[in-house]
Each structure stands twice: as structure tokens, then as C-alpha cells.
Amino acid sequence: MSETTPATSRRSFLTRTAVAVAAPSIATLAAGAFAAPASAAETALPDYAPVPPSALGPALNEQGYHVGRVERNLYWVTDGTYQAAFLTTRDGVVLFDAPPSIGHNLQRAIDQIAAANGVSNKVTHLVYSHHHADHLGASSLFGKTVVRIGHAETRRLLLRDNDATRPAPDITFKDRYTLRVGGQRINLAWHGTSHSADTIYIHLPEHDTLMLVDIALPGWVPIYNLNVSEDIPGFMAAPATALSYPWKHYIAGHLGRLGTRDDVVLHQRYVADIATNVRTALATVDPTPYFVKYGVNTWAAVKTYLDAVTDYAAAPVVAKYTGVLAAADVFTASSTLVVLESIRLDLGVGSQVHP
Ligand SMILES: [Zn+2]
To answer: What predicted TM-score, i.e. pTM, was given to this entire model?
Structure first.
């Protein structure tokens, strides 16, 4: 395969989608699909329910980003799939996350706002929401002198993973830290493992805003396994913790629009419905036929039984949320399986001691 062809295809795809839809960086996620022959992919790809208009955000500019005001001197940037935020102050700019998919458009967005308001465009501080590369991989673009702030576990993980695009934070904390820059106050807090061990709550009380990344995604269901989360009980508890803060604007790290308190409540109900249905399914689906059929192949019996429980639990949730949350029919089954495993393994439901 030539080296230029896929890159060219991808670039032209990015250009086309930047004009056509509000999610050009979907191309980044889908880049691997270019390896498959188009004809095979076209015939094999499933159809899904339409995305509700309420899930979509503002149109992107020709460079593939949108920058908007959250409140006063707090702004958010999106490429339709990822989000970052920044605060302009008299002493420089505080940036929150640096997703590689937004990349150089972060500084372009900052330049645009700084020029319009006659303030400094120099990023002096960079706050990390958690250690994942998809939210931090453009960190190194801001150089060595930027002060990076994150959880102590973020530092440990980044030093371990040794990725040059994500320098470890210089300032770390374990439970709480208040960052003050240019007369602005940003409260950082850790409330336990949820999406990741180091996911933090970024609260800007003077801007009525909470940034909490990879938990509730406004207008959309979580992706695989409840956003590929490390601790399911912690992930399920996070919305209540988020709602215990006073705020109006929610910056989720995904997708194309800002969130509200209603978005977080809706996400919370969606996950709670999955958990309720899993408990019903565990009490309803009879494992006997699966174990009878597969005999000594224990794993085949376990897989088909748990798949049946998952399908039984997920189907009503898909029906209820299709048209309400985008991609309910895409990812609910995957998330239902991890809720099922968490209810069995974390909570011990259905566990029986041999007599
Ligand atoms: Zn993440």
C-alpha cells in the first residue's frame, strides 16, 4: 500500500465532512476502516437510528472547529467529537485538556478569542482532566514552560506510560486543589475512581461551570463499556457527585455541544434503567439450557447465557432511549454487559455458595 493514498483519502474525507457535518474528527476514529475494501464495507455496515437533532452542536468553521463562550471569559472548543475549554485572564490563558483531534486548532481558537477581546493569547497553565491520550495528546504543543496541573495519579500514570505528547503534570494534588490565575479561581477535586482512577472534577464557581470528562455525554449514550470506564460503581455514582455542585454549564469532553443539568440527569436515568433491567434479567433468564447444550465447554455456556441476559436487559433500554439519546442502538448492549458484570462481581448479586 502506498503511503500517500490513505493520507490523501483521509484528508479529503476530513475536508468533506468538515463542510457537510458537525463531526469531522469521526474520520480520526474511523481511519482504520480505510484498510477494508470499500465494497465489502458498504455491504457489511449496519444501519442505525438517526441522530436526534438535540444531540448535535453548532456548525464547525472551515478549519474544523467551533469556539464559543461558556460564560464571561470562559470558552469551549469542539471539533464535533472532542471538547476542550479555556479561560482568558489578565496573566494569560488557562487551558483545560488538549485533545489531539483538535490539535493546532486549540491555539487558533484561543488566538481568535484573544484578538477579539484584546487579551493575552499565551497559554500559561494546562489542567488535565485525566491521563487519557485522546484528551491530552496535544499537550506538548504548548511547550515546556506551561504549568501543567493534574491529579497525583495522572502524574504517576504519565511517567509510567512515557508518552512525549503528554508531559506529566508539575503541580499535583490528591483530594482538592484551588488554582488561582489572574484573579480567577478554579476548584479541582478528586472523588474516587470512576471513568479512570484519576478523573477529576473541574469546577469554576464564578462561571457556573463544571468540567467532568468521559462521564455523561450530552445528547449521546456512552461509548463501549460505559465509556471504557475502570470502575463501574464509581462511574455510576459520578453524576450524583456532579449534580451536588452548583453549576449551569457542563463541559463533558465530548461531543458537539455543551451540557446542562438535565443532560446529566438523563444520563443518570439511562444508566439506572440499564442496572434495573439487568437485575430483572438475572432473575428471569434461566441458565439451564445453555449449560445443558454446551456440556464441558463451560465458557460457551457462560458466554451464551450472559449474552442472553444482556440482550434481555438492553432491549427495553434501546427502545426507550432511541430518539432521545443518540446511538442508544449502537452502544447500549456493550454498556449493559459491564453493568451486568459489575452487579455480579462488585455487588455479588446472583453469587451462590455451594452447599
Ligand atoms: Zn478517558
So the answer is: 0.88
